[in-house]
Design a protein that fits this description.
This protein is mostly helical and about 400 residues long. It has 15 helices and no strands. The chain is globular and about 55 Å long.
Length: about 400
């Protein structure tokens, strides 16, 4: 049977949209398994090196408050090309930095440049695909994000076993690939004919997406950071072993994409988010309290799968919240997500140091709160933040 949606998309170069989705989360967590190696190489402390996570996420999240709307006005393709080139330069500076101060500055630049790529990719996907296939496309993008977050510790850990600077080879090459082969002009063409409006972003549906996004990453990055510490402290794993265990996060996120897409399409983002929150609670408790390495890895797997569901659900809520500024809506939801990630280490590290495994287990309260918000009674504003989203099928693909 002919698939007109697939035929319409055949002329677009869309694979860079998913590679770009991989890069943002990859940069956020890549330093965590090699903080000791970075500290030794740059004559600093592990605590200072760990700040590389925060200095990446803060400008990343802060600039995404405005980057989507600005790029809608300036032109998606132009902004993407400039931002990707700047990202490659920032990544090279990270690898070549002679001092801790310059390294942290380059990490901040990495985050700032990536703020002008990720939300535009979500908007491009929603404009390009539309209709019944949008749920599957958003799930694939969420899987690419999960792969970036989950695989970065593996690649970084393996690189750090030789030289920590090699860890920047993967994001650098991915960025360079996208500079040379960016999304096609048609894939990044904005469909709305009106000027992107800031006012259209003030709606309950987007507020809900932002709140759940924040909580999802507050928990997910909390797992990433604390699991690394627990694997080192309790099981005496080195950077390669930690990287291998942490890579289960990304593998699970990729594997969960088909099921997430089906659930999102048939049941909508609310139920998808509720199911994902329940799975995340179970995963966090396994990772925090598991007495055996296998249980900890099982917990990482469950959280990785859950995060794909939450990312897909929140992206769906965001891009269906407004029709004239999808880039701005996606950028606000993603900004909230990475603000949650930026806050995670600052919040959870002292709790873990003070309470040990019990402090780690407290992270499971976060998806419980997210689930409360996703129920109709707990919605932002006290009412449903929109129809029960089978309305993804009402988002038309380009040209219809």
């Amino acid at each position: 049977m002919r698939d007109p949606h697939r035929e319409r998309a055949a002329g677009h170069r869309v694979w860079p949209l998913y590679v770009g989705g991989f890069l943002g989360p990859y940069g956020s967590t890549m330093v965590t398994p090699m903080v000791h190696e970075v500290a030794a190489g740059l004559h600093g402390t592990p605590q200072t090196a760990a700040a590389a996570v925060t200095v990446y996420m803060l400008p990343f999240a802060a600039l995404m408050l405005v980057s989507g709307t600005l790029a809608e006005r300036w032109g998606r393709r132009r902004v993407l090309r400039v931002a990707l080139a700047a990202f490659v330069v920032a990544t090279a500076l990270c690898a070549a930095a002679p001092t801790m101060e310059l390294f942290l500055t380059a990490r901040a630049l990495q985050g700032a440049t990536n703020a002008f790529t990720t939300p535009l990719l979500v908007a491009a996907i929603s404009d390009l695909v539309g209709g019944a296939r949008l749920a599957k496309a958003l799930s694939r993008f969420a899987a690419a994000q999960a792969a970036g977050q989950g695989l970065s510790p593996l690649f970084s850990g393996v690189g750090a076993a030789v030289d920590w600077r090699l860890a920047f080879l993967v994001p650098g090459l991915c960025g360079l690939l996208l500079v040379c082969f960016p999304p096609s002009r048609s894939a990044t063409l904005r469909t709305a004919t009106t000027r992107a409006s800031w006012r259209s972003l003030a709606n309950r549906r987007l507020a809900l997406a932002c709140a759940v996004s924040f909580l999802a990453y507050l928990a997910a990055v909390g797992l990433t950071v604390l699991a690394v510490l627990r694997l080192h402290d309790r099981f005496a794993l080195g950077p390669v072993g930690i990287g291998l265990a942490a890579s289960a996060f990304g593998a699970a996120g990729i594997a969960a994409a088909p099921l997430t897409g089906q659930l999102l399409h048939t049941r909508g983002p609310r139920l998808t988010g509720l199911v994902a929150d329940a799975v995340m609670v179970a995963g966090l408790l396994c990772a925090a309290l598991g007495a055996r390495l296998l249980l900890v890895v099982a917990g990482i797997v469950l959280v990785g799968a859950a995060v794909t569901g939450l990312r897909a659900a929140t992206n769906a809520l965001a891009v269906t919240s407004t029709s004239d500024n999808r880039g701005g809506a996606a950028s606000l939801a993603l900004s909230a997500q990475f603000f949650g990630g930026a806050a995670a280490a600052t919040l959870w590290l002292p709790v873990y140091r003070a309470l040990g495994d019990g402090g780690f287990a407290l992270v499971a309260l976060v998806p419980v709160l997210s689930a409360v918000l996703l129920t109709p009674a707990g919605s932002v504003g006290g009412r449903s933040a929109g129809p029960p989203v089978r309305d993804l099928t009402s988002v038309p693909p380009r040209g219809r």
